[in-house]
């Protein structure tokens, strides 16, 4: 009998090992110690994860504010403002690549643990769209404001209108105009959205996204990043997910909402991100967008377990927690990519 019980325990650990492949340490460590339990009773919190290298300075700021007692949304906003104001981050806020008419147009959203959301899209002339999105959440009966209406709202809230096109981005745009071919360079012209997910000290999930979108897009184009369910989604009972990459592909598949839904059905953050990335690949392998398609997801569940996964190599994300501080992790991917 005890042999049979040992066998069942080992079999359970084997299954756990498979489902923990590729996502962060906790389940794997517990498996090695032989103390893994499902569902896990240990929750790793607080924890903040965000996309790409500029996620690291953003995470540090968010962490500082969180530890100083700020609310989750205020901490997320503070962190996301760092890449928004950085002219060297060419796909977020100030300094972002413009559209094909030379206009910098911005998309952002924010969501809290009670499923309150605020979003702005096709917003021009405002340095911090994440802050405007937060005001939409807090001060309007709506979820999403677009274009001129979003700008009007921002101005009424006291935001200042300014020119976000830097001389460097203007130069690159003029160079692009010479050929005017829309074919964003993978990991360069279709990345850099910052998406951030948080499990706070109370065990509540929240998240945000901000971007200037795909470089050289058509004027008026809106990507996945401000769309709740595409660029960002969370369900406080389950987990949170966010996307980066070619927004059209993420919208077509309701990417982030699907990652969360798979976690609800019991998948690990890694398995959920991988499955949706593969679904996107399958739906696009004969599609015109495939030649420049990159998508990546990050996900965080209620236990504080996290993962990232992308279609093509080169995607990484920042992680901050009490145990190991701030660091970058490389996401696993479906296919390698050499520029
Ligand atoms: C978009 N998802 O507008 C964004 C682009 C991006 O990292 O930068 N993603 O399609």
Automatic annotation (TrEMBL):
Chain positions recorded as substrate binding sites: 221-224, 244-247
Site feature Cleavage, where: 192-193
Protein origin, superkingdom: Bacteria
A GO cellular component annotation in the UniProt record: cytoplasm
Active site (catalytic residues): 193 (nucleophile)
InterPro entries hit by this protein: Ntn_hydrolases_N, Peptidase_T2, TAT_signal, TAT_signal_bac_arc
A Pfam match: Asparaginase_2
GO molecular function, one term: hydrolase activity, acting on carbon-nitrogen (but not peptide) bonds, in linear amides
PROSITE patterns xref list: TAT
Signal peptide range: none
NCBIfam families linked: TAT_signal_seq
Protein name: Glycosylasparaginase
């Amino acid at each position: 009998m005890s042999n049979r019980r040992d066998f069942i325990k080992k079999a359970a650990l084997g299954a756990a090992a498979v489902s923990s492949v590729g996502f962060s340490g906790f389940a794997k460590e517990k498996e090695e110690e032989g103390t893994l339990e499902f569902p896990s009773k240990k929750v790793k919190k607080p924890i903040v994860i965000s996309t790409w290298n500029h996620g690291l300075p953003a995470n540090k700021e968010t962490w500082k504010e969180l530890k100083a007692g700020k609310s989750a949304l205020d901490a997320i906003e503070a962190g996301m403002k760092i890449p928004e104001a950085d002219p060297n981050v060419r796909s977020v806020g100030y300094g972002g690549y413009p559209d094909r008419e030379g206009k910098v147009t911005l998309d952002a959203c924010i969501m809290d643990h009670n499923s309150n959301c605020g979003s702005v899209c096709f917003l021009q002339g405002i340095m911090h769209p994440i802050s405007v999105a937060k005001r939409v959440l807090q001060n309007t009966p709506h979820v999403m404001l677009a274009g001129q209406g979003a700008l009007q709202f921002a101005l009424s809230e006291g935001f200042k209108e300014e020119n976000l096109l830097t001389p460097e981005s203007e130069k690159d745009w003029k160079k692009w105009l010479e050929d005017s071919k829309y074919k964003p360079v993978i990991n360069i012209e279709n990345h850099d959205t910052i998406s951030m997910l948080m499990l706070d000290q109370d065990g509540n999930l929240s998240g945000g996204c901000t971007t200037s979108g795909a470089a050289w897009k058509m004027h008026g184009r809106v990507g996945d990043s401000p769309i709740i369910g595409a660029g960002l989604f969370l369900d406080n009972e389950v987990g949170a997910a966010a996307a980066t990459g070619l927004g059209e592909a993420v919208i077509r598949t309701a990417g982030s909402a699907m990652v969360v839904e798979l976690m609800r059905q019991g998948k690990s953050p890694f398995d959920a991100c991988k499955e949706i990335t593969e679904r996107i690949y399958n739906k696009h392998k004969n599609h015109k967008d495939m030649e420049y398609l990159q998508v990546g997801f990050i996900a965080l569940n209620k236990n504080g377990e996290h993962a990232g996964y992308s279609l093509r190599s080169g995607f990484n994300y920042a992680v901050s927690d009490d145990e190991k501080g701030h660091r970058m992790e490389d996401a696993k991917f479906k296919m390698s990519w050499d520029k």
